[in-house]
């Protein structure tokens, strides 16, 4: 089961945010974001962002494509965290 913070970081990564942008958005250093991702990857049994994305879409197919509601199962039942309203701008987005 992912912690709240691990689920939040994974959710943001799957939404398209990069490590530095995630850190800026939730006030963590890029190394802390990477640590959360590493722990989440281990818990989910994936070795890369590509494998994480494939896992997400496999679960999506299994759940009858009822996203985003059924994504709560993927995130360990932590679907209550709100998605940010806008992506951070500037140099941080797209790098990390």
Give a description of the structure.
- The chain is mainly alpha-helical and 96 residues long.
- It has a single domain (4-78), classed as Arc Repressor Mutant, subunit A (Orthogonal Bundle), CATH 1.10.10.10.
- The chain is 55% helix and 0% strand.
- It starts with a helix and ends in a 22-residue tail after the last helix.
- The relative contact order is 0.21.
- From the coordinates shown, what is the CATH architecture? Orthogonal Bundle
Rg: 13 Å
CATH class identity = Mainly Alpha
SSE run = HHHHH
Number of contiguous helices: 5
Q: What's the CATH H-level superfamily name? A: Winged helix-like DNA-binding domain superfamily/Winged helix DNA-binding domain
Feature tags:
96 residues; mainly alpha; Arc Repressor Mutant, subunit A; 55% helix; 0% strand
Record the SSE blueprint.
Elements: H1 4-15, H2 19-26, H3 30-44, H4 49-62, H5 71-74
Short summary:
This protein has one domain (about 5-80): Winged helix-like DNA-binding domain superfamily/Winged helix DNA-binding domain (Arc Repressor Mutant, subunit A, Orthogonal Bundle). It contains 5 helices and no strands.
